[in-house]
Amino acid sequence: MRDPQALISTSDLAAILDDPALRLFDCTTTTVPPPPGVDVPYVAVSGLAVFEAAHIPGSSYLDIQGEFSDPTTPLRFMMGPLAQMQAAFGRHGVGPGARVVLYSRGSMMMATRFWWMLRALGCEAAVLDGGFDAWQHEGRPLAAGAPRSYPAATFVAAPRPGLFVERDIVRAALHQPGTAIVNALNDELFRGAAPSRYGRPGRIPGSVQVSAATLVDPATKRFTTLADAQAKFDAQGITPDKRVIFYCGGGISATIGLFLLHQLGYDDLTLYDASMGEWARDPSLPIETG
């Protein structure tokens, strides 16, 4: 594992809950089908209510839609401008000396999304392996009530360019032999076998599939082994010498794959942030099915 500090076990987290430097965040946001007649892929639902019902003791809560997405676009979950990100993380106590740990429930993908965002801003963080589900399954202590309020801090980003890309970069990379464009969605969405909530069914031409769901143990919610992940990437020709562009529906589940590729030592990694939420709705962009 390239970066052991980026992954934390439930037992290791339990041992540091009293660390004054700890900044522990539940990142849960879920998506539900839109109301009839509303032309959006899904509606984002804050996880604050479920957080207040039960969370890991000492946690605060990060609302990706409320503070950490670009408000100027109708696309969901797009990375916000630098000044917005710095102010938002600073309000939540992320600053010099902070030890940031991220978790989510139902899936780790919201935690890995925040991990990728922080990485793009030059801030290291750790993802709780198995998230809230693993913590609860082990019978560890739970708390209820409002999020913890950490003292505000000054968050000064050191941006890492290239971790997010726009559609023109993706379009220019189509069929380039040195680039692997990777789809993290399920088989049906990848093949375009049924109507898609994102728009036109199908995938970005030339892309290969490594579904995020196959990179997590469905029973424990923890990451699969690095050996298993490597085998899945190898089977799709995703080798360390290539530039990897990962995408999904809205730039969330793809970060599961990016997290594991990082741990496997891949260097040239990027996320198509708008993903199929943009690509499938733009008739000027090519699409592939089958």
Give an account of the 3D structure.
The radius of gyration is 18 Å and the shape is globular. It has eleven helices and twelve strands. Helix 5 crosses helix 10. The two termini are 35 Å apart. The chain has two domains: 4-137, Rhodanese-like domain (Oxidized Rhodanese, domain 1), CATH 3.40.250; 164-279, Oxidized Rhodanese, domain 1, CATH 3.40.250. The strands form three sheets. It has a five-stranded parallel β-sheet with strand order 1-7-6-2-5. Strands 8-12-11-9-10 form a five-stranded parallel β-sheet. With 290 residues, it is an alpha/beta fold. Strand 6, helix 5 (109-120) and strand 7 (126-128) form a beta-alpha-beta unit. 28% of the residues lie in helices and 15% in strands. The model has no long low-confidence stretch (mean pLDDT 96).
Describe the secondary structure blueprint for this structure.
Layout lengths: L6 E2 L1 H6 L6 E5 L2 E4 L10 E4 L1 H6 L6 E2 L2 H4 L14 H10 L7 E5 L5 H12 L5 E3 L2 H7 L26 E2 L1 H7 L5 E5 L3 H5 L16 E2 L16 H10 L7 E5 L6 H10 L5 E4 L2 H5 L11
Parallel strand pairs: 1-7, 2-5, 2-6, 6-7, 8-12, 9-10, 9-11, 11-12
Antiparallel strand pairs: 3-4
Helix pairs in contact: 5-10
* First-residue to last-residue Cα separation: 35 Å
| CATH topology descriptor of the largest domain | Oxidized Rhodanese, domain 1
Strand content: 5-15%
Q: Calculate the mean pLDDT score and round it.
A: 96
Using the coordinates above, name the CATH class of the largest domain: Alpha Beta
Question: Taking strands numbered 1, 2, ... along the chain, how are they ordered across the largest sheet?
Answer: 1-7-6-2-5
Find the CATH superfamily of the largest domain. Rhodanese-like domain
User: How many independent structural domains?
Assistant: 2
Provide the structure class. Answer: alpha/beta
Task: Please bin the fraction of helical residues.
Answer: 25-40%
Q: What is the global morphology?
A: globular
Q: Could you name the ranges where pLDDT drops below 50 across 5 or more consecutive residues?
A: none
The counted number of beta strands is 12
